[in-house]
Amino acid sequence: MKITSVKTAATSGHCMHLWVRIETDAGVTGLGECVHGGYQAIAIIKELEERLIGRDPFAIDAIFEETRRSLVFEGGFAGALITALTGIEIALWDLKGKALKVPIYELMGGKFRDDIRVYCDCEVSPGMNMDEVQAEVDKVLEAGFSALKVDLDIRAYGHTGSETGWYEKDRFNMTPNKWEHDRMVQLAEMVVKAAGKEVEVACDLHTRLDKHSAIRLAKDLEHLQLMWLEEPIPPENIDAMAEITRSTSVPICGGENLYLRHGFRKVFEQQALDIIMPDIPKCGGLSECRKIAEMADLYSIPFAPHNVSSPIGTMASAQVCATVPNFLVLEFHWFHRDYWSTITDGGEIIQNGRIKLTDRPGIGLELNEEVAKQHQYPGTTWFE
Ligand SMILES: [Mg+2]
């Protein structure tokens, strides 16, 4: 079997969802999804098509690594180039599963579990009072989720602290003032109270603090027994992240902006995070993230993938989550968006906060192109 074409399409959702379709001379095709690669990833895939045509589509790891290494001067270690390769890699796994008529998890050593626990992003925002927080949290709990996440970084919403107006003075400074600090603590307390004793709560800081402010905030959140505190500082400084992690009993989670095993190596060596959250359809794909998870397991670090993908990328991520021992929970980021369940032939893949793995080959879902095309991303072509 040989690859005959590599085509892309893109839809709007959480961000640009880039679809990669790989066709073969045997008539078997595979579909992959990647996210956060933007128009650059489309251009990269177009350029790579020529070198993929004629290749054996089953040699997934070899195609990935050979292409990546040959493009090291173009950025073959992080960013859009890796995301483009990720879309290709996931399509190749889908194709291989379909050709062999087995789900991807069967090709990756088999399942540790039959269903995948999912946590839900909750649209609580810093201006809300307790009743408003409760109403938002209740929507997620009524859908059956046993874990949720909220954004704690009040600067993301442009809140100023009416007493001080500090934010307006300098939006690049990463030290929250006392009002901002107290407001973040209060918001986390409201969410934990609204969620109740049995539901786990994670709080995301989107890299917006400096080291000392993160340590101070984590300390003041310790009484809440959070599932985790996410990305307190920018991902570049792993030494500073390690200091934060060691300073607090709150589990520190990160990694959605790291790429490949190489991006995580220092994290593991320094025990810089308590939980890792690679974005599987962004940072290297299924093989690579399975390897990242296995590396994490050596260091007693749970694997809780970041995920903003459609059901296709989510189910592709679930295939990996099934095959590693240290899987904790997978993200769901489309709770308030309406076309999630209509974009594939799988219906509502999340039931009561869990994704049940099926026996369908490959990823286990097909794109509903009629619906997907209604959400075509501006300025892109459709599998041409
Ligand atoms: Mg995050």
Automatic annotation (TrEMBL):
UniProt cross-references to SUPFAM superfamilies, sorted A to Z: Enolase C-terminal domain-like (SSF51604), Enolase N-terminal domain-like (SSF54826)
Protein keywords: Lyase
Every Mandelate racemase/muconate lactonizing enzyme C-terminal domain range: 130-251
Gene Ontology BP, a term: amino acid catabolic process
Keyword Protein transport annotated: no
InterPro entries, per database record: DgoD-like, Enolase-like_C_sf, Enolase-like_N, Enolase_C-like, Mandel_Rmase/mucon_lact_enz_CS, Mandelate_racemase_C, Mandelate_racemase_N_dom
Organism: Devosia insulae DS-56
Molecular function terms, GO-annotated: lyase activity; magnesium ion binding
Protein known as: Mandelate racemase/muconate lactonizing enzyme C-terminal domain-containing protein
